[in-house]
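To whoever picks this up:

The parser on our side crashed when reading a file containing two proteins. I've narrowed it down to the boundary between the first structure block and the second sequence. Both blocks are reproduced below exactly, byte for byte. First block:
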Amino acid sequence: MDVIVQGLHVFQKGGIVMYILLACSFFVVYIGAERALFYGHMDSGESFASRFYTYIKMKKYDDARELAAGQKGGLALILADAMKGNEQAAVPAFMEVQSGILIAKLRSRLYYLSVIVTMAPLLGLLGTISGMIRSFSIFNVESGQAVAITGGVGEALVATAFGLCVAVLALAVHAYFTQRLDRMITDMEMCFSALEWMQSGMSGR
């Protein structure tokens, strides 16, 4: 219990910047949870892309069509709709537009994480500087005031430490979803190229 009380005391000594950083940390957790649910719903999976590509290359077009129709996720939905189209010339344009819309939705809110990665250490530094200014405003160093100065500087440094922690958390979340987005884009490109190869083969007959 004493540890919690001391932690709250130190947190309050960091100034108003600490509350802004706390709000940023909650926002990072919210974005991480929301993006995890959304990516889990929209990600068709690497195994799906690999199987679809293999079916197309083996000219098992019916199997590929059934696979896309029975799989969840944004990529599977685009492929299923594309393979239903009767006009082959319109399929590449359809896939380009739909994939652009999907990628835009997947990238949504990731920009906020990159902003927090940059902003959080700066806010922590601002809190530390303001705390040090308050500490060194004590010019008349008499009995006990030197301790007050050093103690105030130590408490002010908490703002920088907290800002760095928030930035590290945001960076980790941003890196995870950026890597996952890159993998999903690679899956799209692989499946789209296979579908275009299928159409070029069918039109060449």
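<<boundary where parser fails>>
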Amino acid sequence: MTFKKFIKNEIEGWKKLEVTWLLIACAVIVGLSIYWDDTVMGIISSTTGVVCVVCTGKGKLSAYIFGLVNTVLYAVISYKAALYGETMLNALYYVPMQFVGFYVWSRHMNDETHEVRKKHMKAVGRIFMVLAVALGTFLYGLLLKRLGDAMPFVDAFTTVSSVVAMVVSVRMFAEQWWIWIAVDVFTIYMWAQNFVSGNDNIATLLMWIVYLGNAVIMCVRWEREVRRNRLDEVHVFEDDTATE
């Protein structure tokens, strides 16, 4: 794929409401961050993070490009805030996963919509996912407590859930958004406490609030699209059977 074709595919298919949501979210973060005198790093990290999650919801490959910028800067911000779980998550996991996600998604794009193909997990996969989050949170929370993490078990939950959600996202499962909603709620609490304590991370807090709103919107969108695709497959099967 040429660079010109890549850009064309990323631009195509956007609805006015989706573009409006993206522009408003970025404008709010930049505007309030400047008002609260946040750092340039925080503003860039938060803005690219918002673009990343919106593009992920849209199923666009560029999500992983913006995600790479966001995860590198967010790791630095988390380290300065003594949130070591978030730091390790981004530096050691999210950064390399941007390359993995880009590669996997590029091989499963819909030629008509130029979006990734969306699907559901099986029941066994969902059960395994919940157990992995629960056990991982408990064990990782104990480790972070020993390291002196500011909020060890909250940090552990957001970290472990994010690891699982990223795998689910790369596999193109709609269930990722249910995990992201839970992650966003707990992460908002974590950064709100950090901000109340006197740290100037308002852009990061706003970023996660936007993440939550976006996760709810995209959860509805992906669930609806997966069900529609399933009905289309049933109709195609019935038509093929009738023809035979």
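After patching the parser it read the second block fine. DSSP finds nine helices and no strands in the chain. The CA atoms of residues 26 and 47 lie 6 Å apart.
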